[in-house]
Amino acid sequence: MVVCVGLAAGCSSEPVQKIQRVIPEKKDVSVTSGKVRDMEARLERLMQLVTYKYNPSGKPDPFEPFLKSAPKNRTADRSRPSRTKRPDHCESPLECMDVGQLTLVAIVSETAGTRVAMAQDASGIGYMLKNGLRIGYRNGVIKEILQDRIVVEEEYENIRGELAIRERLLFLHPEGK
Fold first, then answer.
1. 3-state class (DSSP) for residue 32
2. What is the pTM of this model?
3. CATH placement of domain 86-171
4. Is the CB of residue 94 less than 8 Å from the CB of residue 133?
5. Are 138 and 156 in contact (CB under 8 A)?
6. What is the distance between the alpha carbons of residues 173 and 106, in angstroms, rounded to a whole number?
7. Which residues pair with 170 in a beta bridge?
8. Chain centroid, CA 70 distance in Å
9. Which residues touch 115 (CB under 8 Å, ≥6 apart)?
């Protein structure tokens, strides 16, 4: 009786052949092409450590504004005190504060049809306001007193450095209260 042991040998009595794996020989990988040599040389130059030193001459300052406008006769403006800054001396306490610091408390109509307003500052001091009264450190003047608000015209310095006039409103019942 013949017993087969293993599938590689088969069921015969012939000798078993060994299978050898063929490993390809390493070829000499020397560069023969001129293009490849040029690429390797460029790669070597790119891989070299480069030291860089910043030279700011001839470059714009990154912290200066891009748009510059020539000031209109600013030397004359510097000699006089700015009207939009707080003055050193005020004729009344109302002229030393900003219009926005006041809270409008009441508006009263007089018999002649004119209106008088009452306002207070943050410390609770009250002031009587009438048409034409100077208010605020920006040379503000009360233009009109209406039923629910006061219109104040005041000077301000616009984007070009020129003095302009704007209207500010003080409401009797500010929004959200």
1. coil
2. 0.50
3. 2.30.30.830
4. yes
5. yes
6. 9
7. 150
8. 24
9. 107, 108, 109, 131, 145, 146, 147
Q: Which residues pair with 145 in a beta bridge?
A: 150
Query: Helix, strand or coil for residue 91?
Result: coil
pLDDT in tens, the chain (177 residues): 555 555 554 555 666 677 777 777 766 655 567 888 899 999 998 888 878 888 888 888 888 887 776 655 544 444 444 555 666 778 888 888 888 899 999 999 988 888 999 999 989 999 999 999 999 888 899 999 998 999 999 998 888 888 899 999 999 876 655
CA angle, residues 130, 132, 137, in degrees to nearest 5: 100
Q: Nearest CA to 172 among 129, 141, 137?
A: 129
**Residue length of the chain:** 177
Domain coordinates in residue numbering, the chain: 86-171
Structure tokens belonging to residue 20: 């050898």
Q: What is the DSSP letter of 120?
A: E
User: How far, in Å, CA of 86 to CA of 141, rounded?
Assistant: 16
CA distance 168 to 99: 8
